[in-house]
Here is the input.
Amino acid sequence: DTGVSQDPRHKITKRGQNVTFRCDPISEHNRLYWYRQTLGQGPEFLTYFQNEAQLEKSRLLSDRFSAERPKGSFSTLEIQRTEQGDSAMYLCASSSQTGTNTGELFFGEGSRLTVL
Amino acid sequence: AQSVTQLGSHVSVSEGALVLLRCNYSSSVPPYLFWYVQYPNQGLQLLLKYTTGATLVKGINGFEAEFKKSETSFHLTKPSAHMSDAAEYFCAVSVNTGNQFYFGTGTSLTVIP
Here is the structure.
């Protein structure tokens, strides 16, 4: 089963350090999303790619956050100078859609970040 | 702008009883509506979705939901709860003019034997 995979599943880091998460979407999917989920909350949209183009970014995505999808396949989400408030589950989802977004999002199991 | 409200962050039902999870949305344009389920230590997976057409939609595992435009609701139901239904359920909305999916805060369903 080649679903959406995320790595690492868990990351513990000290405040001020940089972290990078990787997402491998389902291979034929052209759209890739990053979401953040904190305890007791639903997923919050961070950013979205169509192929290699980053088309939307949330206001939640401060300048310490950067995401890339260089060849339209896997994506990375980097957080620089981490803060305790960055502690959350970072979710990646992909979909195969053209035009309007009526399709299904396929989620990975998430990367849990703990900032000490 | 679009938003989703899920009433009840925790719902408990007895095994075999009706499951009702509430979702209300706000959208200035016709919405597309989704229910996702998240089992412990797993990613979210789609239960069902409404885009156009029939307002009563059926999903996996015996769940169904009805889109009621007049009430701006998309409540999720299942006639008879099973122990395996215990999970976190998220309602989500999107619109055809955008590419974002907006999620509610989730409802944790507990099934009591």
User: Anything to note?
Assistant: The first strand of chain B starts at residue 3 and ends at 5. The two ends of chain B are 41 Å apart (CA to CA).
